[in-house]
Write a structure and sequence with these properties.
Pfam family, one: HTH_IclR
Keywords: DNA-binding, Transcription, Transcription regulation
Protein name: IclR family transcriptional regulator
Shape: elongated
Strand order of the largest sheet: 4-3-7-6-5
Organism: Streptomyces tubbatahanensis
Helix content: 40-55%
């Protein structure tokens, strides 16, 4: 199996040089033409290569789409990291960066807290999608039909008494997040952990990632953490501006400011 994968991957650099026919591919791989054809057909089925009318093969559009998606996520992480590190240095708490991919919200960067009590989270690990602040920010930006479809197919685990109970409550929370431009998780996933986050926007104002600051309440209270919201939003706006290559207009806040006692209720 590893040899098959190795051969299939070896086709890509060849086609990057330009279209090639079956005989050229077989010759480069030093395999029989029937073996090369099986590999090319499989890659064609996945859109990785494309068979032209002249029977030559070239790299397929799916490969470019995957590369573009990977580059976008890599770019936002590279751009965001210095800003996240600066925020972490200023407040000392854990800072996360997350993206939405294929029905999951994943951490793609993390700067650890300077305090001994730390959060259990890892880069590449999915977040608790129904309660996490970063997840709310990413899903709130989806078009309404997609938002509703996602909400309807999610499960709603009762991590704590403050966890989101059902799809209706989740959609209401997403509507609030969409309007105010920031999100919280105050004990929704773990009773002792609070979190506040803001969106990172790309072209045309669409949310491409979300960042958050999290801390256990033995280190800082929810009220104290929420006081960092203006700085969190400024950091997200700075990342957004650098990501699109030009200043962007601040997103509307709805004229509201966080009220810890009100927001501490279940979303």
């Amino acid at each position: 199996m590893s040899q098959t994968v190795d051969r299939a991957l070896s086709i890509l650099p060849l086609l990057a040089e330009g279209p090639a026919n079956l005989e050229q591919v077989a010759s480069r791989l030093e395999v029989h033409k029937s073996t090369a054809l099986r590999l090319l057909r499989t890659l064609h089925e996945h859109g990785i290569v494309y068979r032209q009318p002249d029977q030559r093969y070239r790299l397929g559009a799916r490969l470019f789409a995957l590369a573009q998606e990977a580059m976008e996520n890599l770019d936002v992480r590279e751009i965001a990291h210095p800003h996240l590190a600066e925020l972490n240095a200023a407040c000392g708490h854990t800072v996360h960066l997350a993206v939405y991919e294929e029905d999951e919200v994943l951490y793609i960067d993390k700067v650890e807290s300077r305090y001994p009590v730390r959060m259990y989270s890892r880069i590449g690990k999915p977040v608790a999608i129904t309660v996490a602040a970063v997840a709310k920010l990413l899903l709130a930006d989806l078009p309404e039909p997609e938002r509703r479809a996602v909400a309807d197919r999610l499960d709603y685990p009762r991590y704590t008494s403050r966890s989101t109970p059902d799809a209706a409550a989740f959609l209401a929370e997403l509507a609030r997040v969409r309007e105010q431009g920031w999100a919280t998780d105050l004990g929704g996933h773990e009773e002792s952990i609070n979190c506040v986050g803001a969106p990172i926007r790309g072209a045309e104002g669409r949310v491409v990632a979300a960042m958050s600051v999290s801390a256990p309440n033995v280190v800082v209270s929810a009220d104290e953490l929420l006081s960092l919201l203006p700085r969190v939003r400024r950091t997200a706006e700075a990342i957004s501006a650098e990501y699109v290559g030009q200043p962007i207009l601040p997103q509307p806040t709805g004229g509201r400011h966080p009220h810890p006692r009100h927001k501490r209720a279940a979303p």
